[in-house]
């Protein structure tokens, strides 16, 4: 398919004022989609936790201008730019700029806590949001201190959510002529990222949530191991894979050991299991280990190191590692390509890094252009994706989370499940044999069961595809094509269709068919090299590769809808979770290190406190509670915050007053649902309905009775 010469956001002017990393992440995604982004430079010192610590990365691909807000000429320039602006990106909690907000523009506010709740206006930065949300407490080994994630994992989520929300609001503005305010709070995003830790707590259990390091709560072996020349991840996800691994290790004694015969048995003896695998890996290189493991189809991957960029062949193959010139210094620096791999309107990678104020002439030209008046088409704007039909063939987290948000923005989402149900449908805890995690991860959808192995099921899917605006799936790359649903055949039936495939390494990949668990992606993108505990590579407690894959997929799908509104054409999206995860590590590229800040985690009598810098020799929190330690440290000039557990975060007044979770009635039960982190003032995202019973909507959608098959109790024991 030919690439469209006009990008999704050609002719769209974005003014990036905000100092937060999230504002710049949003601006970068919009620039990749073709928007002209004016990057307003700071002329005074800034805090180390803001985007200015990595100015080169976040200015890439944008127009740089320095404005003196006291100079009359610059005031006039700003006034003209505001008259042209389609989108404004601000972070008013740390940079309260006083500029008028044009009524036709979409104004996106990215703040720590949003505009409501007891913490509204509080200008916490990334590390303290991580501490208060449970992210720190769930990262690290069970027998060690919790670990701060040393790259801006929450700011990246906020920036990507902001891009999706801005695109949705822009679509509404183009239909109605009315702008609106978009609000994205870091704390809301962090709360949403804890979804995998919440089912038991929301079901009323008093159990605690524990750190597990690089292990898996339900599978063993699943960990990082040190080979002779580096680290690698090994995930033997089934009893058969364990037996193959024991044969590779030439340890028939382990394969025949009845104590280790089943997954649950190995989890109980995970220390012994891991020690055996470590002994085998230690005598080989990473490459030697990977060669035999891949032949045996055991999920694995190297822990990719970052020096000037992540050194991983598939990232190079997919164009995610670029060298561009910094026009301020003449130095060549590495920046990531765009993770928005779209067939007609691919994300535009940055070509250079502008010098501060280096684009004033171009910005002046933009400001002097005539403003085209926008007439109101519909004074009562509808939800941004109203009338859009999405067909989902998704499982686990990434695609279901993406379509959950599309549903909240107004799309009709039809989830296709096999007759026995999606794999996570019965993950415990359950109500009536339906799991809490599955129910809130798939809110605002319809359930349709189809057996795609039959002609009847395939015919029914074709009919849905013919009526769909979007088809999105995260099966193994090529799985749908093998069943006759190749992209070429899809667009023959429906030229306006947007087809999105989400996978670990992409369709265009050096690793076709390789398993891609979240932890494998974290290892092979550089994330685990950045996040370390006592020198050992460490995954984030939250499933960040899954989560960011979902949010960026949401950005790509809404962008494709916006493009189709103008062009009439659909397109295909090849979204790689590895691309997205590597893109997130760019603050550690060019030998910069992940963060310019020194942080330490201090043990207290009832938990931990995170503090900035090393504690002075005469300062000690021994024997103190967290509530005693934090003011004690602050009185001595040390910025600090308590590290909260997930149950503590769940009961915070900010969580309650922002209504980040709530209960809603379903077919038989009341269910807890998680709110959407994207808040739009005129056309709000609304989470309303729990995922229904299996196949409930067959009749309404297909005109056929439910094809749900009886399920055995064993299906409730499925795991990843």
What does this structure look like?
- This protein has 720 residues and is α/β, with parallel strands linked by helices.
- Among the domains are: 238-297, no CATH class; 389-584 and 691-717, 3-Layer(aba) Sandwich (Rossmann fold), CATH 3.40.50; 598-644, no CATH class.
- The protein is 33% helix and 17% strand.
- It is built from 27 helices and 28 strands.
- It starts with 12 loop residues before the first strand and ends in an 18-residue tail after the last helix.
- Mean pLDDT is 92; it is low at 706-720.
CATH topology type of the domain at 389-584 and 691-717? Rossmann fold
Shape: globular
Give the second-level CATH assignment, the architecture of the domain at 389-584 and 691-717: 3-Layer(aba) Sandwich
Assign the structural class, choosing from mainly alpha, mainly beta, alpha/beta, alpha+beta, or little secondary structure.
alpha/beta
Strand neighbour order, sheet with most strands: 3-2-1-4-5-6-28
Uncertain spans: 706-720
Q: Roughly what percent helix?
A: 25-40%
């Amino acid at each position: 398919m030919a690439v469209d010469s006009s990008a999704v956001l050609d002719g769209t002017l974005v003014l990036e004022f905000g100092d937060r990393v999230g504002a710049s992440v949003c601006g970068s995604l919009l620039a990749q989609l073709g928007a002209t982004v004016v990057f307003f430079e700071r002329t005074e010192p800034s805090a180390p936790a803001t985007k200015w610590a990595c100015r080169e990365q976040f200015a890439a691909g944008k127009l740089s201008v320095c404005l003196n807000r006291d100079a009359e000429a610059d005031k006039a320039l700003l006034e003209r730019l505001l008259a042209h602006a389609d989108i404004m990106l601000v972070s008013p909690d740390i940079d309260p700029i006083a500029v008028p907000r044009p009524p036709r523009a979409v104004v996106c506010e990215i703040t720590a806590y949003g505009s409501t709740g007891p913490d509204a206006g509080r200008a916490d930065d990334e590390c303290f949001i991580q501490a208060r949300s449970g992210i720190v407490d769930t990262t690290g080994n069970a027998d060690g201190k919790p670990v701060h994630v040393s790259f801006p994992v929450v700011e990246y989520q906020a920036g990507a959510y902001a891009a999706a929300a801005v695109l949705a609001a822009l679509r509404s503005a183009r239909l109605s002529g009315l702008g609106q305010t978009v609000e994205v709070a870091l704390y809301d995003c962090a709360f949403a990222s804890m979804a995998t830790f919440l089912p038991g707590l929301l079901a009323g259990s008093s159990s605690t949530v524990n750190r597990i390091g690089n292990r898996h709560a339900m599978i063993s072996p699943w960990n990082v191991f040190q080979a002779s020349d580096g680290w690698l991840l090994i995930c033997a996800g089934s009893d058969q894979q364990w037996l193959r691994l024991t044969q590779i290790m030439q340890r028939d004694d382990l394969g025949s050991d009845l104590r280790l015969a089943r997954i649950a048995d190995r989890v109980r003896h995970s220390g012994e299991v891991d020690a055996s695998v470590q002994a085998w890996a230690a005598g080989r290189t990473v490459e030697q280990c990977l060669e035999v493991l891949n032949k045996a189809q055991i999920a694995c991957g190297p822990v990719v190191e970052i020096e000037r960029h992540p050194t991983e062949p598939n990232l190079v193959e997919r164009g995610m590692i670029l060298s561009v010139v910094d026009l301020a210094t003449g130095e060549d620096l590495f920046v990531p390509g765009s993770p928005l791999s779209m067939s007609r309107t691919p994300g535009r990678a940055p070509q250079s890094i502008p010098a501060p104020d280096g684009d004033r002439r171009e910005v002046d030209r933009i400001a002097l252009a005539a403003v085209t008046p926008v007439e109101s088409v519909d004074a009562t704007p509808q939800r941004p994706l109203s009338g859009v039909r999405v067909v989902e063939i998704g499982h686990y987290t990434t695609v279901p989370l993406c379509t959950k948000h599309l549903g909240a923005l107004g799309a009709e989402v039809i989830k296709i499940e096999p007759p026995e149900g999606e794999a996570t449908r019965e993950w415990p805890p359950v109500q009536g044999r339906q799991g809490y995690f599955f129910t809130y991860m798939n809110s605002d959808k319809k359930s349709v069961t189809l057996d795609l192995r039959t002609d009847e099921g395939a015919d029914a899917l074709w009919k849905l595809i013919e009526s769909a605006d979007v088809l999105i799936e995260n099966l193994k790359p090529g799985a749908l094509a093998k069943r006759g649903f190749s992209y070429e055949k899809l667009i023959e039936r429906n030229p306006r269709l947007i087809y999105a495939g989400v996978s670990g390494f992409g369709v265009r990949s050096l690793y076709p068919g390789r398993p891609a668990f979240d932890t494998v992606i974290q290892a092979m993108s550089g994330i685990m090299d950045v996040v370390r505990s006592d020198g050992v590579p460490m995954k984030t407690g939250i499933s960040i590769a899954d989560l960011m894959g979902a949010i960026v997929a949401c950005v790509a799908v809404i962008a494709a809808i916006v493009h189709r509104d103008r062009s009439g054409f659909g397109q295909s999206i090849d979204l790689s979770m590895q691309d997205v995860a590597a893109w997130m590590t760019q603050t550690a590229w060019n030998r910069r290190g992940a963060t310019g800040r020194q942080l330490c985690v201090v043990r207290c009598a009832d938990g931990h406190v995170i503090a900035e810098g090393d504690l002075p020799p005469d300062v000690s929190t021994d024997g103190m509670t967290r509530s005693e330690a934090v003011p004690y440290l602050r009185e001595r000039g040390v910025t600090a915050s308590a590290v909260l557990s997930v149950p503590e975060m769940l009961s915070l007044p900010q969580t309650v007053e922002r209504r980040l979770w709530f209960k809603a009635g379903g077919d038989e039960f009341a269910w807890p649902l998680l709110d959407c982190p994207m808040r739009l003032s005129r056309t709000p995202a609304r989470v309303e309905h729990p995922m229904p019973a299996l196949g409930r909507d067959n009749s309404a959608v297909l005109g056929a009775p439910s094809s749900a098959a009886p399920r055995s109790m064993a299906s409730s024991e499925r795991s990843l």
